[in-house]
Write a structure and sequence with these properties.
Radius of gyration: 16 Å
Number of helices: 7
Helix content: 25-40%
Structural class: alpha+beta
Shape: globular
Strand content: 15-25%
Length: about 200
């Protein structure tokens, strides 16, 4: 479970290009794009990890943010299911505004707590980055926060760079504050990775 006592600061990452690598899913897991009704499974996942106070709030958020464009959603929202056909992870290849332009942005990487540590998050990121690549939509942005430090390490190992000043959507870039927090959460070697990846 994420430690939400860790201070929240807007943390911005950007990937300018992506070199595809083989996606490895454990036996019994498979990808499936959004199908009508999956908003309930998404809401259940997000509620379980504490991103929303109620299931209804999570589902209403998904409906209002993504279901206005069902065609894009069916192409851009990826789920991982287990051998019982239960949704255990998700990630969305979406877009946001950056000034007067539109930029690609990776939304809501999530894996069920019971299924974490199996490489599902990495597989979802790779799958979504492949969607962006097929459409020639790089660079790709991510907004996150220090309590997602495990995901931040994953992102930079897939080619993202922490942004010192760049940002998108409505987010204020809080790089300095975020790094001050991350320094106390990571090993020296991991923190060094973040420094090297910063631009």
């Amino acid at each position: 479970m994420l430690d939400r006592t860790i201070p929240f600061y807007n943390t911005i990452l950007k990937c300018n290009n992506y070199t595809p690598s083989k996606i490895v899913l454990p036996h019994g897991f498979y990808f499936r794009n959004y199908q009508t009704g999956n908003e309930k499974a998404w809401a259940k996942l997000e509620y379980k990890i504490g991103d929303f106070q109620t299931l209804a709030m999570a589902e209403n958020y998904f409906l209002s943010e993504y279901c206005q464009n069902i065609h894009a959603l069916k192409e851009r929202c990826v789920f991982i299911l287990n051998q019982e056909d239960e949704v255990v992870g998700s990630c969305i290849a979406w877009k946001d505004n950056k000034g007067k332009q539109t930029v690609a942005s990776l939304h809501w990487l999530i894996v069920s707590p019971e299924q974490q540590g199996k490489g599902l998050g990495k597989a979802l990121c790779q799958k979504v980055l492949g969607i962006f690549q097929e459409r020639n939509e790089f660079p790709v942005y991510i907004h996150t926060q220090p309590w997602s430090y495990i995901a931040i390490l994953l992102y930079i190992r897939l080619g993202f760079q922490l942004q010192k000043t760049d940002t998108f959507s409505h987010y204020e870039n809080q790089y300095v504050q975020s790094m001050n927090v991350l320094k106390h959460l990571l090993t020296d070697q991991q923190y060094k990775e973040l420094l090297i990846s910063s631009s």
